[in-house]
Automatic annotation (TrEMBL):
NCBIfam families: CD3324_fam. Pfam families: Mor (PF08765). InterPro entries: c-mor_Regulatory_Protein (IPR052411), Homeodomain-like_sf (IPR009057), Mor_transcription_activator (IPR014875), YraL-like (IPR049739). Residues 8-86 form the Mor transcription activator domain. This is Mor transcription activator domain-containing protein.
Amino acid sequence: MGYIKACKVLPQELVALIQDYVDGEYLYIPRKKGNEKSWGEANGTKENIVKRNREIYYQYCSGVKADALAERYYLSEKTIRKIVSIEKQDAKQSVG
């Protein structure tokens, strides 16, 4: 998330009013209702993790052991097993 200078996008009167409340501090303005984005959606992180998890699942199904996958992806074996379990459930729901 980048910062935008308020004086570049807001009327001067509004900037002056905001300064009465938070002079020189950072201010977060949330998105409007319905415009929210979920975690990782804006920068592609979520999509990358979904892709990685599918790769892990397919490799596991192809016979690659959890410990080898953990080392390859820098994750714990417990995390690999959790990913495999979730992907397995998702695959079952997609089929039937």
